[in-house]
Amino acid sequence: xxxxxxxxxxxxxxxxxxxxxxxxxxxxxxxxxxxxxxxxxxxxxxxxxxxxxxxxxxxxxxxxxxxxxxxxxxxxxxxxxxxxxxxxxxxxxxxxxxxxxxxxxxxxxxxxxxxxxxxxxxxxxxxxxxxxxxxxxxxxxxxxxxxxxxxxxxxxxxxxxxxxxxxxxxxxxxxxxxxxxxxxxxxxxxxxxxxxxxxxxxxxxxxxxxxxxxxxxxxxxxxxxxxxxxxxxxxxxxxxxxxxxxxxxxxxxxxxxxxxxxxxxxxxxxxxxxxxxxxxxxxxxxxxxxxxxxxxxxxxxxxxxxxxxxxxxxxxxxxxxxxxxxxxxxxxxxxxxxxxxxxxxxxxxxxxxxxx
Amino acid sequence: xxxxxxxxxxxxxxxxxxxxxxxxxxxxxxxxxxxxxxxxxxxxxxxxxxxxxxxxxxxxxxxxxxxxxxxxxxxxxxxxxxxxxxxxxxxxxxxxxxxxxxxxxxxxxxxxxxxxxxxxxxxxxxxxxxxxxxxxxxxxxxxxxxxxxxxxxxxxxxxxxxxxxxxxxxxxxxxxxxxxxxxxxxxxxxxxxxxxxxxxxxxxxxxxxxxxxxxxxxxxxxxxxxxxxxxxxxxxxxxxxxxxxxxxxxxxxxxxxxxxxxxxxxxxxxxxxxxxxxxxxxxxxxxxxxxxxxxxxxxxxxxxxxxxxxxxxxxxxxxxxxxxxxxxxxxxxxxxxxxx
Lengths: 356, 340
Known about the structure:
Chain A is of the alpha/beta class and 356 residues long. Chain A has helices spanning 3-14, 37-51, 75-79, 91-103, 122-129, 132-135, 165-170, 182-193, 241-254, 272-282, 297-309, 330-336, 340-352, and strands at 24-25, 32-36, 55-59, 84-86, 107-111, 145-150, 175-177, 199-204, 211-215, 225-228, 233-237, 259-263, 266-268, 285-288, 318-320.
């Protein structure tokens, strides 16, 4: 490791100012805390910068402003403008720069400000980020974690509510993950930042301000996790839809229906074994996502479930998704995103399904 | 305000002789590679005929202990000058492996880049990494007049200027982007002129004059190394051959126009200078060509001997940490294709 950066790091560390507001602490002490997802992500970035002297945070307005969602709040003050820096307003530039920095041995954590702004960078993401390790036969691994505030739900302008997971998952060489709550957000970001491969980190922006417990020991961070165990049906979701599915499961329980909620977490590699394990027990599956239906990730989930559980499935896998339309204006957003009623209807169709 | 670079140290007599030997080796290999394609040894090739001075001269100026070059798919002369394993380089044209089989890290030459303008931003990022690490390295980014139309090139120049990144944007303006001439490609007629808009120092040189190219590139590298930020070198040259072995220039330009527009052949130009200045004699010239032919014969054997990579390698470099999904696909492929 070059000496200069080490010196910069140690110097910057002595000048730190505590970013953000002090987190709430619960009765269990410092190991378990209640944080918003914004705070959890902010801490994950800070802890990454602290632990990894090669880590860099870059993007539009991530410096003094702390990012439009304040995910990088206070990081530049704490770690200095060499390690946390604003870039000009060009997403292809941000990704191309990150690739070059990775070739120079850094671990960049770029941010694109909103999901829809990843589109101008797709050439760099698909043709370069996803392929540099392959093209160079391992000479240039790409330890780049691209943070993308993702999905809808905040009444934002056009191109600020897109679900890009199906596109990213289809690209060879990328890994894709989306946290559902502050606990997952903190630990999955720490894990992604430590990985040698490029990771698209899709942050559910509608959940940024929701609080939850963050513990020191998150358990396994690989693959999917059962967010709520159940017996009659598996509800599969990721990102912001996990919380909605947990609400649905609560409502279904009132009618005596035991719904298991599987938080997929890693969209690539997708946890086929966890899908098989859950659905082989419940024998019914409903997958929920915000993105358009056709060739959405739900289709991959349905295929994996069907391939693995064909003999035990009691009904075709149901998909509750967005529609094949451009993401609509805020007024129609609640009609587009799968809501509780639509998910419950889907559950009902699966439970009532009869062969022939 | 943009500074205008003055040409740096011109090559001395010994360097001019070495440059000639390099240019002859590159010329002979380039012409041979087209023959290789016609003979079926390689499926395709992007010739750089006429760009020997631009490629050899610019790469010659690099300090391989510190600097790093980012090529396109038409930089055989750069690779040869940098001492890259040429069988590994030609492996890309043999369809053995897209990025080539040479070691890009040890060679200081990034993998061959097929997206026009795709690697220009990488050069800026790598260069900024040198700044962060306090290292003296300069990135040399190769692209052409066609690539200058790409948005990534604008983003790269703007980023580099804002960040004062030590990167030389080396444009080989060879007059043609496949079938489109520069006047239909480059508004304003000069990529170097655009540098002023970014506040980047620039220089435009006769890309057929290897001494001028070496001097300009040295000046640009020194400018970057001194902490003055990026520099632009536009080498004016001419693509004497087709865009690729699949191209048919007769559909968009005539032989008469090629002869009229190509300017002085860069190899002839240097040979005449060496002879006129008494820096070389006919025996030296002949020896250069004889060595080039011998080198090509050796290389041809090596390229012919390049077997296909094992199919399992399709899966090997996708990730540093392969996924279970990919392992499963690899195992299935092996079972069905290799009966493993």
